[in-house]
Amino acid sequence: MKSFSIIAICSIFSVWQDADAFIVSSSTTGGLPFPFMTKGDKVRESTGIRPSLHPITINAIAEALKRRSRGEKLRIGDGIQPLDVATTAGMLAEEILRKRRDTSEQDDMLLTPEEEQTIAGRIVGVVMRFDDLEESLHKKVSNVGWVKKYDEWSSFGVLSEENEVDLRIAQDPLFTMSRAECLLAVFLHTVETPKLKEMNASVPGGSDVDFIDSDRFEVLIEKTDL
Length: 226
Prior knowledge:
Layout (H helix, E strand, L loop, with lengths): L1 E2 L2 H8 L28 H6 L6 H16 L12 H23 L8 H16 L1 H13 L2 H5 L15 H7 L1 H27 L1 E2 L11 H7 L6
Parallel strand pairs: 1-2
């Protein structure tokens, strides 16, 4: 099985078919999409176990949602082009990864270049598809009776009517985190996994949705696809 950079794969996923829309301008990163470090986690390397890539990715998606709620260029439309969103998302990914490197320097918990690429690609891939993923998420949740009956909308990070969702995101960190988790789950299941299977490719850590509880998993993941 081949191993591909998720950023390269995301360029193939793109509805705009523009690979440049998934990297930060080289002028902002010294000539590379993301200035990776080569030092790895020695302890985990000795056991073959690597840290999950999902927590940092979910935190980054939550941050993107918060920034979008404040009006940053993370929503296509009204003069904001796909490349504008991709560039902003790429810069956010680099910011998140740089902070991770800074806090990991002293404990040998640095990510590998391939892991950083996977995280960055997922951040950009989700942000570029915010509208489609959010529509899909809301549709899945709206079709479940117990969500309406017990008013469990917020556990998925959605509102029954989404017209004031940006305000809720700005005010409620738990709501925002739940939304980020669910958006990543939908992305992995409907976008990344099918494309990787089609290409007979893999990414570090795999694409399993193993970071949400069983109730949400049953709502978001089609049983027929398992």
